[in-house]
Amino acid sequence: MKPNSTSTSTSTSTSDPLKERALQLGLHGLVARWAEFHSEPWLERLVSIEEDARRRRSLERRIKMARLPRFKAMADFDWTWPKKIDREAVEELFALDFLKTASNVVLMGPNAVGKSMLSQNLAYQAVLRGHTAYFVSASDMLNDLARPNTGVALQRRLHRYLTPQLLVIDEVGYLSYDTRHADLLFEIVTRRYEKNSIVLTTNKPFAEWNQVFPNAACVVTIVDRLVHHAEIIAIEGDSFRNHEAKQRNAEKAKARLEKRKNRTSTSSNANTISEAP
Questions:
Q1: Are 223 and 193 in contact (CB under 8 A)?
Q2: What is the pTM of this model?
Q3: Which helix (H) or strand (E) holds 167?
Q4: Helix, strand or coil for residue 166?
Q5: Beta pairing partners, 197
Q6: Which of 134-148, 178-192, 248-262 bottoms out in mean pLDDT, i.e. has the lowest?
Q7: Mean pLDDT, range 108-125, rounded to an integer
Q8: How far is CA 151 from CA 4, 79, 141, 147, in A?
Q9: Residue 275: CB partners within 8 Å, gap ≥ 6?
Q10: HSE-up of 204 (CA within 13 Å, CB side)?
C-alpha cells in the first residue's frame, strides 16, 4: 500500500497559531525548540511583546520617512471658516479608500484655507494605518530632481518619490517652473499613475497651470493623468492665517488697553492717598 503523500506533507507544517506568529517574527531559534517551550506560560506574552515592539519600530520608521512638518490635528480644523467646502467628501477621504484603488486627491483653493493641513493629516493617518507616505512641497521635489546629476543619481532621487504608497505634493502653483521641472513632474505623475496615490494641493485651477509651467508641452497630459482617477475637493474662502493674525492683534491691543487702564487706576489711587489730610 502506497503512503499517503498528502498526510506526509501536512505533518511537517504547523497548525499552532502561536508558533506561526513566532515564525512571522523570525524567532527561528525558539521555533526550532518549540517542543521544549510551547507549554511555558510566559511564551505567548513573550511573542506579544516582540510583536508590539516590531509594530512600534515600524510606525516610527514610517513617521520619520514621511517627513511631515509640524501640523494641526483635524480636531482643530475650523469647518465654519471656508465659504465653500464639502465636509462629507473630505471626511470620507480619511477612510483612505483612495489608496486601495491608487486614486488621487486634489485639494484646490486660494492661499491659507486649510489645504496643507488636510493633506498633512491624510498622510499622517495613512502612516498610522500601516501605509508608507512622503510629504514634500512641489518646489523642494522639483528642485531636488532638477539638480545636475548622472542618470543613476536621478533614478535614485526618483525612487524616493515613486516608492511611497502615498505621495503628498504641496503648493503647486505658488511658483512658476521651466520645461525641465514640468518634465520631471510628468515623470512622477506618469510612473505613479494607477500604481500609487498622490495627494496634491494647488492654489490654481487646472486651466491656469500653463502659467505655472509656461511653454511646457506636457501640462495637459500631467493634468489628464492626475485627475483621471481623482477626488477633487474645491475650497473657497479668505485666508485663515490673516484671520488668526487679526485675532492676535486684536487680543494684544485689548491687553495693552487693560494695562493702561490698570496703570491709570493705580496712579489715580496713589494721588488720592497722597492728597489725604
A1: no
A2: 0.77
A3: strand 166-172
A4: strand
A5: 166
A6: 248-262
A7: 97
A8: 57, 46, 17, 11
A9: none
A10: 15
User: CB–CB of 140/109 below 8 Å?
Assistant: no
The C-alpha cell of 217 is what?
508641452
Which is it for the CA torsion 198, 232, 116, 184, positive or negative?
positive
Which cell numbers hold the place of 262? 490698570
Instruction: In whole angstroms, give the CA distance from residue 26 to residue 21.
Output: 9
Please report where in the chains the cell 516608492 appears, as a residue: 163
Q: Is residue 77 a contact partner of residue 118, using CB atoms and an 8 Å limit? A: yes
Distant-in-sequence, close-in-space partners of 248: CB < 8 Å, separation ≥ 6: none
What is the DSSP track for 120-149?
HHHHHHHHHTT--EEEEEHHHHHHHHHSS-
Q: What is the DSSP string of 69-99?
A: -----GGG--TTSSSB--HHHHHHHTT-HHH
DSSP state of 236: B
Return phi, psi of residue 202, to 5°: -150, 145
- The Cα 85–Cα 92 span in angstroms is 13
The full set of domain ranges for the chain reads: 18-31+49-66, 68-234
Give the residue, 212 or 244, on which the prediction is more confident.
Answer: 212
- Direct distance between the N- and C-terminal alpha carbons of the chain, in angstroms, rounded to an integer: 128
Q: Rounded to the nearest 10 degrees, what angle do helices 138-146 and 179-192 cross at?
A: 100
Nearest Cα residue to 228 out of 188, 199, 187, 194: 194
Fold category of 68-234 in CATH? Rossmann fold (3.40.50)
Q: Give the CA-trace dihedral at 48, 52, 58, 62, to 10 degrees.
A: 150
Instruction: State the Cα torsion 244-245-250-254 to the nearest 10°.
Output: 100
Tell me the three cell numbers of residue 91.
471626511
CB-hemisphere CA count at 13 Å for 229? 17
The residue among 125, 129, 122 whose CA lies nearest residue 106 is 122
